[in-house]
Amino acid sequence: MGWSPRWEVPLEGVALARKHGARLSCWLAALMAFCALSPLSAGAHSADTGLITVASKHSVPETIRRFEDAVRAKGWKFFTEIDHAAAAREVGLELKPRTVIIFGFPKGGTGPMQKAATLAIDNPPKALVWQDDQDKVWLTYNSAEYHLLTIYPRHGLPAPPAEAVKAYTQLLAELSRLATE
Known about the structure:
The protein contains seven helices and six strands, in the order ααββαβαβαββαα.
């Protein structure tokens, strides 16, 4: 039998839910409130997760177009988009817009991938343009620090020099600004 994308609750989980239903409901409500009030919901920089989320003044398609144009204008390469909402529609499900943009700089990214083939699972960098439940549009991407100081060492590569991290931070901020303002 093949894999099924359905969530299945084991019988033990059903028994626990019956026994602790009220406490579980309170816990889930508290978790949902925490998530709703978290800084990422409001569009913040999160050093803990390595994600930077910026509010866009534009629609999802316009933010995507502006980001891709900015990538090309900086001499970087736009590789592709992954439209998760379109994929959901194909299987009869609904999902607010969530489009991943894959972009990079092969002149700079190829060397590290030659040294560590597994880096290709995390490289090239990605940006996510998405719409929340209030129809606000956001751009989210990994910070330069996370990309270069966490992901690279994960693959056995040395962290790049501080100047490279600073330059990449400035580039990402500029791409973000051009896409969202």
